[in-house]
Amino acid sequence: MNAKVLVGALVAAGVIGTGAAAYRGHIEAPVSQAQANPVTFAAVATPAATPGATSLPLNGFSDLVKRVGPAVVNVSVNSVRKASTQEQNNIPEEFRQFFRGFGGKNMPNFPNMPRGDQPMRGQGSGFIVSPDGYILTNAHVVEGAESVNIRLTDRREFRAKVVGVDKQTDVAVLKIDAKTLPFVRLGKSAEANVGEWVVAIGSPFGFENTVTAGIVSAKSRSLPDANYTPFIQTDVAVNPGNSGGPLFNLAGEVIGINSQIYSRSGGFQGISFAIPIEVALNVRDQLVKSGKVTRGRLGVTVQEVNATLAESFNLDRPRGALVSAIDAGSPAEKAGLQVGDIVLKFNGNVIERSSDLPLLVADTAPGKSSPVEVWRKGSTKALTVATYEGKAKADDDAVAGNEKAGGGRLGLAVRPLTPDERKENRGRMGLVVEDVSGAAARAGIQQGDLVLAFNGNAVKSVEELREHVSKAGKRVALLIQREGQQLFVPVELG
Known about the structure:
The protein has 494 residues and is α+β, with helices and mostly antiparallel strands. It contains 12 helices and 31 strands.
């Protein structure tokens, strides 16, 4: 069975001399002269979406492409890949001995045998956001680059300086030494509607200024390892080399940066993702101003609330961000936030999905206090939590044998932590899963997991867990710890 693989849609990077290819993964449109401030970009205004952004013109996309196409550029990257010791050692020993027998000190250059550092070339896309040469692209397009070259549609070429990169959002800012360049207009992805027409321009497989079109399939998509990006999902054809290129609405405004595809083969299969332009602009402003990106943090880990978890916590419907872990000494802990709280509002903003919270927190200046509304044990509670600058990141003795907790309903055999295990776990209580079956197994609980809480109530003994199970309804939530990470797992008891 072929597994679905989320891959970055970028760079067709080829090893010179071997012909090997590798794929790596992770966008803007024209603003007025008054909008293009090369230092702070403070004057950039993002115009509201217009009716022209939603209705398909009679002549297709030709007028749009004529207007915005010259601001889309090809990004060519040169780098060097360090050959690993294992690769160096892959040369058969009989060959080594043969040439040593002839007094040779150096191995000949056999084709297809890795020898030392290997030059690499890759291509991606980008777009000019100001007439004085600022360009946006993906961070992965220029990662590890020794040199970056920009080619315009009029075939002029420039050596680009990498102003800064932000791997967490996969946004990079480049600068070329040029004036009066064509540049894009910036729109608002927040005002784009699912079903709207959108257009991508880029360099798939090196074919420069290639135009593809489709619709917005969904918004605010969460992807693995992308906590700060609510992706725009489209069905626009995006392939290796499209990464870093702009996603336009029909008004000719950039609303996103084409970044990733969801694929079984590594090529386009109908699902592509773009970084919202608002996220990219925030990153750009910080990189241009200070060369780095600063984000606020609370010191919590959150997860999505599904129907089972909502019922387990007596919440009316699935919504909010469920707190599954809190960093010791963090502002969240000091403010009284607890594991099992469901964050419903942050600084007045409603949290519908767990991915909403990291974005709002990241945009909050470190040190600023914000009101937070949480759902705790059947009612709402108001807290005030400060953000800080950070990087994206038992009393019972052991018993002999296993004890079945919850019988056939839960299907767990658990035991208390030993004193040594509690010490390793920083004194925390919990029950170690020795065996799993039935409802717990179907929910994904594994042997070796540590059960910390049942429906938000801390579990310190087998008897406590058994009592909770006896009083529970059909759906419950277990807080478990696995390999140092905490997670709420919904369980259908039946």
